[in-house]
Each structure stands twice: as structure tokens, then as C-alpha cells.
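Q: Sequence in, structure out?
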Amino acid sequence: MEISVFRDNELITGISILAVLRFTKKLELSKCMLIEPLLSYSKVLKLLKRSNSSVKSIEDLIIKESIIFSNFSSRYQEKLILSINSLLLFEEMGLLKIDNNNVTYNGYSFDFSEQSLGEKAKDRISASRKLAEILTKGEASDFYLSLRIEL
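A: Exactly. Output:
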């Protein structure tokens, strides 16, 4: 069995969510559910981790950057359980708190520069600041509508 089978897991997803929360401090649960499907999309990740990219909204991703989100609803559904498990795991670890439809950052002791996190985590951590900016500049319902997520 190849190790690539394990490329998406609760730890990578949890680190991604925690990295975004580091900048927002608090985020609606529905917005946290968008982090993994967005950062697991290689084109989005490449764009957001670049220091010279100027993406400020979901619309920038869709229109200016011509990133195709036609299958995003299925990507969202596919990553939903992974996101929920990650949130529960990281809450159990004391790194975040889930309360009243909000997720609050509590990972002040987490070392985002730890080398053993690996390249994949490092890329997601690099993209987290820009994703945090995007997620704080709009309503969750607008994101779900723009990304055509069917619930």
C-alpha cells in the first residue's frame, strides 16, 4: 500500500483550520467547513500561498483567476466528514473551542513552524492568511451561493 492513500487526514485538515483561525480568532462553523475543500484544491492552494497574489474574495478566485468550481459542491460533500472529525479532534486536544455555531482559536501553544509538520501542512499554513482574509469579508451564505454548494 502506498503512503499517498493517506494524503487527506484529520491532522492536515485540523492544522489547516487552526492556521486560518490563528488569523481570525473566531469563525462561524459553516465557514470552517469551507477551509478543507478550498485548501485541498491544488489551484486554490497554489494561488493563496504565493506571496504576490492579490486574491481578496471568492469572486476573485472565480472570475479574476479563472478557477473552475463546477465540482465544488461534491468536493464540499466529500470533505465534510473529514472537516467535522478534525474540528472534534482539535477541540478534544484543546486547540479550539466549538460553541454556539462558532469555532474559537485556542492554539496559542501550537508551533506552526515545526519542521515535522511536513510540506503539505507548510503549504496550507502559508495559504491560511489569505484564506482568513477572504472568509472574514463576507457572509457564509454568500460563499455557499458563489461556490454553488448544494446542502
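The chain is about 60% helix and 5% strand.
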